[in-house]
Design a protein that fits this description.
Layout lengths: L10 H33 L3 H17 L1 H11 L1 H18 L6 H17 L3 H11 L4 H30 L1 H22 L28 H13 L2 H16 L1 H14 L4 H26 L4 H18 L7 H14 L4 H12 L4 H30 L3 H18 L16
Length: 422
Amino acid sequence: MKRGFLNFHHAIPVVGVVFLALLAAAGVRSTPAVLMVPWGNAFGWSRGVISFAAATGIFLFGFTGPFAAAAMQRFGVRRTVLFALGLMSASALCSLAMTQPWQLILSWGLVSGIGSGCVAGVLSATIVNRWFVTNRGLVMGVLAASTSTGTLIFFPAFSAIEEWGGWKPVVMTVALGLTVLIPLVYFFLPEWPGDVGAVPFGAGADHPVPVPSRESPLTMAFGGLRDGLKNRDFWLLAGTFFVCGFTTNGLVGTHMIALCGDHGMDAVAAGSLLAMMGFCDLIGTTASGWLTDRVDPRKLLFAYYGLRGLSLIYLPFADFTFRGLSLFAVFYGLDWIATVPPTLALANKVFGQNRAPVIFGWIFASHQVGAASAAFLAGLSRSANGSYLQAFVVAGFVGIAAAFMALPIGRQAPSPMPAPAG
């Protein structure tokens, strides 16, 4: 039962709902970056303390992934996403009463990190592999763009709300948006195509019906890690994705507004630059998905990481006006998270479709370790040196190194993957 991509298929509304859920989770992860200065002013907390809370959330955002992927296979996608939305909404509301740094770390670090980690790259990978046989790269590009685009477009909106009413209206907006999504997920996110009498997009009527896993999520998650650690390509994929996180939401996503503030640019203008990146990312990552279906993913990763590294080395020496940074915003936005579709494609190739979502969860965890490292270390460097110069230049050279790491991925003979327990 093959259809043109624009003809109606039950997979289309599923992608729409997941897109919105990913967008909301991105809003959660962008909030600490917007409120870094307001929280410091309101409570007297240092940039290092707030960066630690943000880094904790980013770290758990990644390390929840493989366990969330396993939970989706064992308990269902819908239940896992509903749990995550409720958890994030509750943590945001509770933070309205915080007065101590540990409460910030608990709410916007620990709890929101776990919740948002259930609505991240592993959700996209699971949906793509369940609902699509063709156009997987394109759909993964669209869903990946929702995550990063959401992070970036919320910056100017939240910055404007904060300037109008302080930090609490921003937090209430986040909680309300998450709550509104709960009924949409409940009613419009089936578990499998067969639940609505369909087959995956691009599949024939004889497509085999999947057997839900009965394996323990913990066993499944750690089994995926064990399988990955034995494979050289896992280390290369995890290493390059570490650099992806380090150079995007960890460094630029967390510290770009503060960097611009150091050069005299107000928060709303800096947030608008990030919104411009978000719009360009929607184009760039979707195009990357389309290219992944047609071009060697290794070559794409080489280009993405190499160009990203060069642009980061340039940034500290740029003219810090809105006009001066617009070219950087467009260029960096197109490349922001274009790495996701080719990375998932290589994971599917190396580990197979059944095991890939869980193993991709561990690869995504590496992404967030990189992001957390950059979020914390750049803040520490800024506190110690009074400048972000060293952090951005080092990140640029790390990006260039990742470009060369991507070329050998998938060139060794694939190792056999054990079949998931039925």
